[in-house]
Design goal:
By secondary structure, the chain is of the alpha+beta class. The protein has four helices and eleven strands; from the N terminus they run E-E-E-E-E-H-H-E-E-E-H-E-H-E-E. The strands form three sheets. Strands 1-2-3-4 form a four-stranded antiparallel beta sheet, with no helix packed on it. Strands 5-6-7-8 form a four-stranded antiparallel beta sheet, with helices on both faces.
Amino acid sequence: MPEPYPSPPQALRYSTPPVEPGWPMALPLRELRDGIFIEEALCAGIGCGRRKPKEGLRVLGWAVRHDLRETRESDEPFLREMLFLALFVPPGEPPLPRSVLNDPKIAQYVDGWGTRTRDSGWIALVDSVPVGAVWLRYFPISSPGYGFVDERTPELSVAVLPTHRGGGIGSHLMPAMLRNVPAASLSCDPANPSWLLYVRLGFKPLPDGRTMLRRIRPVVP
């Protein structure tokens, strides 16, 4: 069994986005009312070729200070935990058993992480402890993922520990992963609350109703 993860620290007025030249190291949060803050819209420029956040404000809940680093081969066990959390269970349905991770079609999202040339991802850390992750993996047509579009389009997976959700971590992980990617796909049940986040980030549902695709420029063969 994995070691228990710590509870989130006290909410702070700064959250740390991915570091990139031209971006602020921290986005100031201004108090709107008790327990609620507003933040400069970090995601507003996603898909628009902007290097800095578009002017504007959006409402956030409590923000948690966190850092991001790129994934390593040694992160495979943690990514496997995140993969399990990313599996959506519709309301009223029994929870999935952990043995579901042994299903080759699911395990392929993290098996041998970092050994494929184009594996890439980010880990979110609170006090140096991993609390969330986002990653991209390319799949061959012979072994497609659930959100497979084609061999040139990577599939995205993302999850945050339940104890750290609602603190802006997922909203920073996603832009970090998508910033320099011309296209990405994912699989999402329309009943999943994350559906709205994906739509806000530019993902559009395909005819099958579950596969979502975000494309900001043509993919080079």
